[in-house]
């Protein structure tokens, strides 16, 4: 089984309002991310919340997801949420996708490419790439979770990927969606459907 850690703990400071709850078509940004994961066959979903956690949990109440609260969400570091998300996964999971909650543009086909690569090769880290730019979601095998959980600041996930470059299997994709997220009102207006 492949799980997903969905990072939704940010404070949306640059957006000026809770970006996970912004409309995206007929749903919210965070709902679109969840529905795309489900469409791609990922149903063990672990949402890490922080800022606006009650509202996010309410927006996702009709979905079967696991919520974990990150008490350190104000530090602005993605790493703390990834650690909490990985720790929250129990059971038979072999690997985890690290998914941005503010990336409603992600495409189910990209997720399927990543999971199919893992199931056929069991590569330890699988990262989508668009024109030589790493993106999300990326996958990390369970045997490496401990290394991420034990990372200490000032080390970041980027540092971890650089250090473990030899373990990364890249998948080249033809869509810029893997490198697009929503940080500012301009991003939202540019990308919204």
Walk me through this protein's architecture.
- The protein has seven helices and ten strands.
- The protein has 193 residues and is α/β, with parallel strands linked by helices.
- The chain has one domain (2-191): Spore Coat Polysaccharide Biosynthesis Protein SpsA, Chain A, CATH 3.90.550.10.
- Strands 1, 4, 5, 6, 7, 8, 9 and 10 form an eight-stranded mixed beta sheet that branches. A two-stranded antiparallel ribbon has the order 2-3.
- β2 (23-24) and β3 form a beta hairpin.
- The N and C termini lie far apart (32 Å).
Low-confidence stretches: none
Number of separate strands = 10
Structural shape: globular
Specify the helix fraction band: 25-40%
Subunit organisation of the chains: single chain
The CATH superfamily turns out to be: Spore Coat Polysaccharide Biosynthesis Protein SpsA, Chain A
Please give the CATH class: Alpha Beta
Largest sheet: 8 strands, mixed
Strand percentage, roughly?
A: 15-25%
Overall residue-averaged pLDDT value: 92
- Domain module count: 1
Radius of gyration: 15 Å
Question: Would you summarize the structure shown here?
Answer:
The protein has seven helices and ten strands. The protein has 193 residues and is an alpha/beta fold.
Topology (SSEs and partners):
Elements: E1 2-8, E2 23-24, E3 27-28, H1 29-39, E4 44-49, H2 53-59, E5 66-69, H3 78-88, E6 95-100, H4 108-121, E7 125-130, E8 133-134, E9 138-141, H5 145-149, H6 157-163, E10 168-172, H7 185-191
Parallel strand pairs: 1-4, 1-6, 4-5, 7-10
Antiparallel strand pairs: 2-3, 6-9, 7-8, 7-9
């Amino acid at each position: 089984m492949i799980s997903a850690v969905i990072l939704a703990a940010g404070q949306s400071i640059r957006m000026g309002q809770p970006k996970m709850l912004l409309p995206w078509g007929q749903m919210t940004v965070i709902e679109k991310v969840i529905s795309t994961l489900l469409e791609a066959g990922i149903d063990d979903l672990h949402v890490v919340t922080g800022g606006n956690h009650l509202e996010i949990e309410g927006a996702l109440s009709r979905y079967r997801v696991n919520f974990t609260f990150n008490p350190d969400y104000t530090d602005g570091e993605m790493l703390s949420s990834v650690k909490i998300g990985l720790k929250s996964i129990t059971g038979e999971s072999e690997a985890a996708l690290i998914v941005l909650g503010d990336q409603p543009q992600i495409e189910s086909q990209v997720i399927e490419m990543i999971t199919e690569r893992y199931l056929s090769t069991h590569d330890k880290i699988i990262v989508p790439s668009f024109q030589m730019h790493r993106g999300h979601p990326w996958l990390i095998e369970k045997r490496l979770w401990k290394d991420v959980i034990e990372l200490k600041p000032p080390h970041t996930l980027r540092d971890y990927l650089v250090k473990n470059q030899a373990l990364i299997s890249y998948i080249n994709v033809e869509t810029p969606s893997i490198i697009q997220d929503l940080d500012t009102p301009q991003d939202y207006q540019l990308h919204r459907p």
